Amino acid sequence: MRLVLVKEPGPKPSSSFTPDDLGKFVEPLKHYSEEHFVCFHLDVKHQVTGYQIVSHGTLSASLVHPREVFKAALVANTHTIIVAHNHPTGHWSLAEKISTLPKR
Q: What is the pTM of this model?
């Protein structure tokens, strides 16, 4: 069995990426009615080269395993990743639950 990465033609990544630019990438997450956990793939120049929806959860939870986060990043030869998720209920106090995630 052989694993290959197929890069489809499309727009080239932006010439530079700053933390402020992240907003345009996570903007669509605001409109989802369930939690989504996404991983953005960046190259060595910190240009976004791709993304992956790692988990599509429920209204209040999204199950994520580190293996799933890193699998696509490794296959895509990603230099850096940025992970993000949404809170569809709009209650950011739920973010406190993140601190209870197991340390791996």
A: 0.68
Q: Which two tokens stand for residue 71?
A: 């699998």
Taking only the tens place, the pLDDT of each residue in 36-94 is 888 989 889 888 888 888 998 888 788 889 999 999 899 889 999 988 888 777 655 54
Q: Find all residues with CB under 8 Å of 23, minimum gap 6, and list them.
A: none
Residue count of the chain: 104
Sign, CA torsion 71/72/76/77: negative
* Interatomic CA distance for residues 56 and 62, integer angstroms: 6
Q: Report in angstroms the alpha-carbon separations of 73 from 2, 7, 12.
A: 17, 14, 18
Q: Which runs of consecutive H residues, i.e. helices, occur in the chain? A: 22-26, 66-75
